[in-house]
Write a structure and sequence with these properties.
Number of strands: 9
Helix content: 40-55%
Radius of gyration: 17 Å
Shape: globular
Largest sheet: 9 strands, mixed
Order of helices and strands: EHEHHEHEHEEEHHHEHEH
Strand content: 5-15%
Structural class: alpha/beta
Number of helices: 10
Length: 266
């Protein structure tokens, strides 16, 4: 997919928020720490300020448990003009769920967003993989687009797909947990430093601007608790905004782009 003007289209997204980003699935945090995770109290305000400064809008895929733990932060994201997306309840690895659990977590999360009056139309599976049941569940639940790992923006049976590719995910480069995936994709097995990560993302953005098509960028606020990671995320936002101003890229959240794609395929 390329933007109507022939430019490359970049879906700008952030994943994870609060304690859910650093806990094993289903694990409960220390209750005394609730409401004080630095990804929410320190990093999120910096990112929102930078997005405002650059006139950029993004999709924040957050675990729905944050509706209980950080409702004001979610309201602030929406008030700033950004989109919220469903990212499971507490970052459960989606492809490992059985059918009953998958449906339970999807609906529990949607109910939590609705209880705050927050509209959610997009879904990203933690771990990047959908199950064979997921597309039908999303459609039945009224969700309109999803962003799994893969290639090729498209519409299938009325559901829009805006996939992501791992080289445009900061965690893929920075975290030791991705060593096996990096090896499979022919990348260095050792984690990159933030500077190296940024240079690889710059190259991917260069290719998108040059060749057109669609890509999805994923940044993680919990990684930006480290100042060097935050500095690189902010630099990337500056670079992306400059490309948008120059007309090289169309940049925005997933929802509007998914709707345009659905209209084209109608």
């Amino acid at each position: 997919m390329t933007s109507p003007g022939g430019r490359g289209a970049l879906t700008l997204t952030f994943d994870n928020l609060g304690e859910a980003s650093s806990l094993a699935p289903g694990e409960d945090p220390d209750p005394t720490s609730l409401g004080r995770h630095p990804s929410v109290t320190s990093v999120l305000p910096r990112l929102l300020e930078a997005l405002d400064e650059h006139g950029l809008r993004a999709t924040f895929f957050v675990e729905a448990v944050n509706c209980e733990r950080y409702p004001d932060a979610l309201r602030e994201i929406v008030a700033r003009g950004h989109e919220l997306g469903h990212h499971s309840w507490a970052h459960e690895t989606w492809a490992e769920l059985d059918g009953d659990r998958e449906a339970e977590l999807l609906h529990r999360g949607l109910d939590a967003f609705a209880a705050l009056g927050l509209e959610v139309t997009g879904f990203r599976p933690p771990g990047g993989e959908l199950t064979p049941r997921t597309p039908g569940l999303l459609r039945e639940s009224g969700l309109r687009w999803c962003s799994p790992a893969g290639d090729g923006a498209r519409v299938e049976d009325g559901l829009a797909y805006l996939p992501f590719q791992w080289p445009l995910v900061d965690a893929f480069h920075l975290m030791a947990a991705f060593v096996d995936l990096r090896k499979r994709l022919g990348e260095p097995r050792a984690p990159a430093d933030p500077w190296q990560m940024g240079r690889q993302m710059d190259a991917a953005l260069d290719a998108l601007a040059r060749e057109g098509g669609h890509r999805t960028l994923i940044l993680h606020p919990f990684l930006a608790v480290r100042q060097d990671v935050l500095d690189e995320q902010l630099r990337l936002l500056d670079t992306i905004a400059a490309r948008a101003r120059a007309g090289d890229l169309e940049v925005g959240p997933g929802g509007p782009l998914a709707e345009r794609l659905r209209e084209r395929c109608a």
